Amino acid sequence: MAVAVTTKTAWKLQEIVAHSSNVSSVVLGKGSGRMLATGGDDCRVNIWSVSKPNCIMSLTGHTTPIESLQVNPNEKLIVAGSRSGSIRVWDLEAAKVLRTLPGHKANICSLHFHPFGSFVASGSLDTNIKLWDVRRKGCIFTFKGHTEAVRCLRFSPDGKWVASAADDHTVKLWDLTAGKLMFEFTGHTGPVNVVEFHPNEYLLASGSSDRTVRFWDLEKFQVVSCIEEEATPVRCVLFNPDGCCLYSGFQDSLRVYGWEPERCFDVVLVNWGKVADLSISNNQLIGVSFAQSTVSSFVVDLSRVPKSDSVPHGLIRDDQPLVPPTPTGSSLRRIYDRPSTSCTKPQSRVKHNSESERHSPSSEDDRDEKESKAEIKNQEDYKEIFQPKNAICRTPPRNEPFPAPPEDEPVAAKEAAKPSQAADVQTSLPKQELPDPVQRPLIASSTSSTRTEPSVIPAARNEPIGLKASDFLPAVKNQSQTELVDEEAMSQIRKGHETMCVVLTSRHKNLDTVRAVWSTSDIKNSLDSAVAINDLSVVVDLLNIVNQKASLWKLDLCTIVLPQIEKLLQSKYESYVQTGCTSLKLILQRFLPLITDILAAPPSVGVDISREERLHKCKLCYKQLKNISNVVKNKSGLSGRHGSAFRELLLLMAVLE
Length: 657
What we know:
alpha+beta, Methylamine Dehydrogenase, Chain H, 5-stranded antiparallel beta sheet, 13 helices, 29 strands, about 25% helix, globular, cytoskeleton, microtubule binding, microtubule, cytoplasm
């Protein structure tokens, strides 16, 4: 009798080598969930069909690496922003560049298409948000208010507002009709990476590097709830199409949230690393991530993921039963009014605020458009997707979900200990028998073997999420040794434990020493003692405290800290680099103007000891900053968040040249 095969809840669909150099940005088409666009340090934008191994089209024209991408709702247009601040819009059906939009002075960090108009919003490292009219080649309006890079932009479903998230820890809501700020949401304690409007209600979700997801009421302009228990930064969020829950992408996991009250319906482990974008199609969630020159896509079967009306886990605050969530579309919160025609308000603003009149079509624009071109790599796929015979369905077929591969092992945990399990798995799943080596070539098969991923984690589990005891156990050569597993497991787990205890004890002692100096003296002496200990981890711990209170910084402190910052910026530890960047940014913003003014001032008449001391400190700081500027310049070419941080520092240090 045939045995029903249990399929996976989450699996890796494919891995492709997307560019000849590092990939810097990826985005999924939200209309079909089948279109993938990638941008790279090779200054190209490549178009792919999800699950197909070959590039359909390659778009050229940018002269600096691509930093941000976005596809419009009907997947006919794509916009790409580069490191230089240039924006290009391509028409995918005509296979040509449609517009070149100059105006930003630094990296383009975020882009978004208006839901039903020919408008694009762009956010930049220069802290500005610009609204563009694609038809008129011009900037309609510039929104100013953020103090750091704008990381994410989203238009509201009715097209009247735009929400922005930035590194300055704030979320801002802008009124497009009035051309002004409506409200600033504060509460996050780290850079805000992503924002997303609820598809129906006046509700906004934001995810941050402070490892929280916050929900904001857009009628009362207050926080609805905050989910704070996560261990890694929030990388992307997406509401379910009916608005019943929010999907949040974290490092190697997908979490499903409700917000009134705040709760986690499910945690699905997906080995996608740092997921970059999410899309939903055919009751499947598609996620994409990138590392170096490769892009990987993953699928989560949403039919097996609880979204509501089930016992949630992880965020329950007591043992009382939860009140069922209010059905979508109820009168709990106001619902968006979607006009039947395209937005006319921004068009009327063109006459009053448009900068497009200053940028009329010129020979320069024509030259840019001639230099930009679309190379069709796969004519057959291109015609199938962008020029189909049946004009009604322009995108790839939507009625066929990706087939789910079978589970690598039986679901019942109790059967996992049976001696016959290994043989059963090998006979029933012959395709999973061979290990899948690390492959850089294209992997198009959805059933290609990947690391075993657990499906839905039961609420009554008795093991920690994300950890499997078998990963820590030595391989058992024969079943007669199973009774020794506990002892061997403890031996494996305790390896290096004593060494780690010694390291942590030493660090604790060093921190106690620094704390004692701080309590009896001042911050300068405590930093001196931290540097004298010659342990960078102690310096990092101390700087993380000092960075939170800018008033503690003095010129004396800079002379001590700058040599340590140079070491931190070259460290192999990400947290050290982040702390170094934060401290250096504070010093540049607070003291660099003072240092340059004092060095440029004419010599004083007579003897002024305090001035001479200050001049000596400024010269020392200037010399140290010059040394650090070389490190910053070398690392400014990196892609991702660190690259942006170093490029921002490079802009601040331009006065040193």
